[in-house]
Design brief:
Elements: H1 9-19, H2 23-26, H3 28-39, E1 48-53, H4 59-67, E2 70-77, H5 80-89, E3 95-98, E4 111-117, H6 126-136, E5 137-148, H7 154-161, H8 175-184, E6 188-197, E7 200-201, H9 204-213, H10 230-239, E8 249-250, E9 253-261
Parallel strand pairs: 1-2, 1-4, 2-3, 4-5
Antiparallel strand pairs: 5-9, 6-9, 7-8
The chain binds S-adenosylmethionine (SAM).
S-adenosylmethionine (SAM) is lined by residues 12, 16, 27, 30, 34, 53-56, 59-60, 76-79, 82, 100-102, 117-119, 122-123, 214.
Length: 264
């Protein structure tokens, strides 16, 4: 995979804006990952001015509030309806910022900590975003994030490969690629860890509905342009790998955890 991941920012914003209404009803995996983040205690190291990038409906922002230990908490998202949902959820003071993770609207060396939960996989060019995070963080500032890894939705990719040669599912970085990116960008005390989750779904259709419900349908601009027909969809569902001994299907989600320290 090249360093540049092709994403259409407008489609990302639109997909998440539409998903904001029902997001919490579908975000089972996000909650499991969030609880894993809390167990790892990584966010207890966040201090000072903390920015939550891609805060969504504010579930993890709220956990950050509960843990405390910071001076100021800021929640940033590209989709206004997500920020509105977060505002409804959170009762303690938070600064809400509608902005793009790839162009942070903050002065250099103005933040102590950056956190992001399952949002940075939507960046068009993650290396540039990481450079910008380093710029916005004070020397020694903390970065903690989770993102999807390359094994994510491998069954769905395999099923579509049997139907056509178009890209229906986004590409994601491997843990090794992310580690290299951070080290090449002079981050310090870099720790990268990954875990595979394989939730069960009643059917491929249920999986597709959940992906749409959390705004995570394929949004790469390089994806198939023509409308996917019912016949294509049926062929993909037939080709989806399944265990003959049980009903339903599994879908893989590789979750990558990263912690690093900024060095100017
Ligand atoms: C899957 S949700 C995760 C929400 C939350 N962090 C959680 O763990 O529940 C991803 C969020 O990232 C936001 N997002 C995607 N691309 C973004 C970007 N370039 N800049 C800021 N936010 C972005 C989406 O609008 C969405 O709210």
């Amino acid at each position: 995979m090249s360093n540049v991941i092709d994403r259409d920012k407008y489609k990302v914003r639109q997909a998440f804006a539409q998903a904001s209404v029902g997001y919490d009803d579908f975000a089972h995996l996000q909650r499991t990952v969030a609880n894993g983040v809390l167990k790892k205690n990584a966010i207890t190291s966040l201090h000072g001015n903390v920015l939550d990038i891609g805060c969504g409906t504010g579930f993890l922002t709220q956990q950050l509030q509960n843990i405390g230990g910071y001076q100021q908490l800021m929640a940033l998202d590209i989709a206004v309806p997500m920020l509105q949902k977060a505002r409804q959820r959170l009762n303690k003071p938070v600064s809400y910022v509608c902005g793009d993770a790839e162009h942070l609207p903050f002065q250099s060396a103005s933040l102590d900590s950056i956190f992001s939960g399952l949002a940075l996989q939507w960046c068009q060019h993650l290396p540039t975003a990481l450079q910008d995070f380093r710029r916005a963080l004070k020397p020694g500032g903390r970065l903690v994030f989770t993102t999807f890894g390359a094994e994510t939705l491998r069954e769905l990719k395999q099923a579509w490969r049997g139907v056509d040669q178009c890209r229906h599912v986004n590409d994601f970085y491997t843990p090794q690629q992310l580690q290299r990116l951070l080290l090449n960008d002079h981050w310090r005390t870099v720790a990268v860890d990954s875990q595979l989750f394989r939730p069960h779904y009643a059917s491929v259709m249920t999986l597709m509905r959940e992906l749409k419900g959390i705004g995570a349908q394929s949004v790469s601009s390089g994806r198939k342009q023509a409308l996917t027909t019912k016949t294509d969809m049926q062929a993909m569902m037939n080709a989806y790998p399944r265990d003959a001994s049980m009903d339903g299907v599994f879908a893989s989600f590789e979750i990558i955890w990263v912690t690093a320290e900024a060095h100017q």
